[in-house]
Amino acid sequence: MLQELLPHDVFAVMLIFCRVGSAIMLLPGFGEFYVFQRFRLLLALLLAVLLTPLLQPILPPLPGNAVQLASIVGSEVVIGLFLGSIARVLLGALDIAGTIISIQLGLSAAQIFNPMAAAPGSLPSALYGLMGVLLIFLTNLHHLLLRALVNSYDVFAPGVLPPLGDLSNVMARAVAGAFVIGMEMAAPFILLGLVFYVAIGIVGRLVPQLQILFVTLPLQIIGGLFIMAFVLATSMQWFLDAFTQQFTALTGG
Fold first, then answer.
1. Distance in Å from the first CA to the final CA of the chain
2. Which of 44, 93, 107, 249 supports an S-S bond with 102, CB 3.0-4.6 Å?
3. Helices 66-105 + 142-155 axis angle, to 10
4. pLDDT tens profile 83-109
5. Distance (Å, rounded) from C-alpha 61 to C-alpha 90?
6. Got the DSSP string for 194-221?
7. Which H or E run includes 142?
8. Cα–Cα distance, 244 to 251 (Å, whole number)
9. pTM
10. Which helix (H) or strand (E) holds 114?
11. Given this model, what pLDDT does residue 246 score?
């Protein structure tokens, strides 16, 4: 009796692990490169074991050949990567906002190692990225991400690959949504930057002898940092609300 039940139980755990583990690789906070891979694997395996009694009744039976097994496992991996990619793309709104802000502040040439992207980036991008992930965990928004993995079994049947066209459309909407969020977060800097550039253009025409670059760049940086300190809390709250709304809508609630 044990020999008959054990393979089915192992298959159920591993099938859930394929979807959960694939998503954990990309989810904000869990899938960062500075998180040890063994910790991600242990977390995904623990979640798979905990979810097996809940999800086992809706899982497909153990396939009879290797081809069917590869098809089922492949579909679960694709779904997990799709869910994780949506969260990762929406998190990219912080990098978009930080890049725009760095241009408006005149800090685009000041590069620093961005731990979120594992590559050099601007100072505002690194700041916004780190604060975004930190606030996701401080506000327990990561519970929404993990709950979406469980609710995905109501949207995507286990072992069945969803239409790739629908996945592409949803991903395109996620990219568009991330760009909109990033532009909205950087809107105050874009507006004030436009006013600032128009003003220095007028001054440059009125006083041609004035070295505009050397005079205005310190003012631009100081003024931009002052504005950032004033709107940072509001913009991060805006990001959390927009992230929650977009992720819930794109993952089917």
1. 40
2. 107
3. 140
4. 999 999 999 899 889 888 888 887 776
5. 35
6. HHHHHHHHHHHHH-TTS-HHHHHHHHHH
7. helix 142-155
8. 11
9. 0.84
10. strand 111-114
11. 86
